[in-house]
Specification:
With 309 residues, this protein is of the alpha+beta class. It is built from 12 helices and 13 strands. InterPro entries: Restrct_endonuc-II-like.
């Protein structure tokens, strides 16, 4: 890629248009050659990027591809006519997502044109207050609070809680003002419930999902991030504590011991032994368990029963 086109691509998240490539001195034949041999790849109609090999998890790759696609959409639509919104804006605000649709780029029209799906882009209509728009990476988009409100009105309760927990934890927002803003929006009932349930003490997507599971399976509301100690000093901070049932639930987002990390395994075992020595029951949940909510709830209730016995 020549320096001039490289500069344009850098300004647009690695993306450039056919017309931008031609204006930088490439011919139609050169463009076809680079697409054919894999040096360049098509992002969407008329929008291209250099091929990049990345070592990412499947979810991180999906986020990366969505972000690049959003740049391509913005590069193909007249400046000032759209703002990135909903979960697309949350991607740029680096808010954790789970259970949301990233197959379409979400935009809100600023020019009064009608909404609807067009060529992989979901166009929304809705007025913005001046304080609800911000520039991120050179693109106009909804602020994090506005984007959260939009997403929470159009996704499931669980997905909304995952992002709401993260926003409350990492961004200074006013939940009361957000709730007032969405009072009459379609889907506001789900959004209100999710925002009321959100807790900034949830430290990961998995913890947020597990909180929702407890709630939907009729378990008592646990305390979050409770610290325990004994005569030897600080034991640790646990993810969930059910005080009346004397039970601790820990969530492991990754299998820590898959690589045979014996020291980590021993450390965790000693930590659990110290918690049990305090008279507590300990239940450990991993990411794969979340596919079976009723089974998780049964395991936790069995922990309650063991402690009661």
């Amino acid at each position: 890629m020549n320096p001039l086109l490289k500069l344009i691509a850098v300004e647009h998240g690695g993306v450039f248009s056919r017309s931008q490539a031609l204006s930088c001195g490439y011919t139609h034949e050169q463009l076809r050659e680079r697409l054919a041999d894999g040096r360049w790849e098509k992002v969407r109609y008329g929008q291209y990027a250099e091929r990049v090999e990345l070592s990412l998890t499947s979810w991180d790759r999906e986020i990366w591809l969505h972000r690049r696609l959003a740049f391509a959409v913005a590069n193909s639509i007249a400046s000032g006519t759209i703002a990135l919104s909903h979960q697309t804006a949350l991607v740029f605000h680096q808010v954790p997502l789970w259970g949301v649709d990233l197959t379409e780029v979400q935009v809100s029209r600023l020019d009064g044109r009608r909404g609807g799906p067009v060529a992989g882009v979901r166009h929304h209509r809705g007025g913005f207050a001046p304080t609800e728009l911000i520039q991120v990476d050179g693109l106009t988009m909804a602020t994090v609070s506005r984007a959260l409100a939009e997403t929470a009105c159009t996704t499931s309760f669980e997905a909304a809680v995952v992002s709401a927990d993260a926003v409350l934890r990492d961004h200074p927002i006013e939940p009361a003002a957000m709730l007032a803003r969405i009072e009459f929006w379609p889907g506001s009932a789900t959004a209100k419930a999710a925002l009321a349930f959100a807790d900034k003490r949830s430290e990961s997507v998995g913890e947020s999902r597990l909180r929702v599971l407890f709630h939907q399976q009729g378990l008592p509301e646990p305390l979050l991030q409770v610290e325990f100690g004994d005569a030897d000093g600080f034991i640790g901070r646990v993810d969930f504590y059910f005080p009346e049932q004397g039970t601790v639930v820990e969530f492991d987002g990754l299998v820590k011991y898959a690589a045979g990390d014996r020291e980590t395994l021993i450390r965790e075992k000693l930590r659990e032994d110290r918690l049990r020595a305090l008279g507590l029951e300990v239940v450990r949940i991993v990411w794969a368990d979340l596919k079976w909510p009723a089974d998780v709830a049964t395991r936790v209730r069995r922990g309650f029963a063991r402690r009661a016995a």
